[in-house]
């Protein structure tokens, strides 16, 4: 049983793996035995993730690709330098704030370029190769807000309005839904992994999560009364990346401490 959760022999690409949830997932993959392809806009955070992986797990094989998933040249660089990809984790994300009545289309399009277009373009590159080999795992990182409405009461003291983020995370699962039946006959699965509130995530840091008022408001809505930790998200990602998830595709796996069950 445990062998089916091993990633030995797999090469896993994680976008946005220099910080936050992307780093946590990449480290989980390394612990499970995968070779890593770390992708992000800035090289230094990727190097930090690589150093942590090697300090914790020994001589991990790691490829670093500094590239922006919103640019043609960035997508081309990833395609050229990644090599074989057995596991694709589309984690890179962005969010622009502003009143939904007046937020600019530039901000809307920037969020969609990172959160929706980037993942879809990488699926276009790597999924056909997975289909040829008749094996692959794709994990699109969504959000609990990709399947529910946001409650401003959870963010006291903030003018909290992120319509582009909500819409884009709904779209992420649309990609998963659409591609799942098309990839399934070729041994390739695609699922969405949707985190709730997590310690160390850039999204929560931007929201100011950590003040007493905000944490108390959050804990009142989450039955487990805590933020998620690195092992909470990485364990779920490792499962979706492994042989153990071979009969699971097109699903939205929510890891949120029970937040969304109300």
What is the number of independent domains?
A: 1
CATH class: Alpha Beta
- Overall structural class, as computed from helix and strand content, comes to alpha/beta
How are helices and strands ordered from N to C?
A: EHEHEHEHEHEHHHE
* Gyration radius, in Å: 18 Å
Envelope shape: globular
The total count of helices amounts to 8
User: What is the spatial order of strands in the main beta sheet?
Assistant: 3-2-1-4-5-6-7
Which CATH architecture would you pick?
3-Layer(aba) Sandwich
Poorly predicted regions are none
Q: Return the average pLDDT rounded to an integer.
A: 93
Strand % is 5-15%
Tags for this model:
about 260 residues; alpha/beta; Rossmann fold; seven-stranded parallel sheet
Give a written overview of the molecule:
- By secondary structure, the protein is an alpha/beta fold.
- The protein has one domain: Rossmann fold (3-Layer(aba) Sandwich).
- 44% of the residues lie in helices and 15% in strands.
- It is built from eight helices and seven strands; from the N terminus they run E-H-E-H-E-H-E-H-E-H-E-H-H-H-E.
- The protein has a seven-stranded parallel β-sheet with strand order 3-2-1-4-5-6-7, with helices on both faces.
- The longest helix is centred in the middle third of the chain and has 29 residues, at 105-133.
- The chain is globular.
- The relative contact order is 0.16.
- The mean pLDDT is 93.
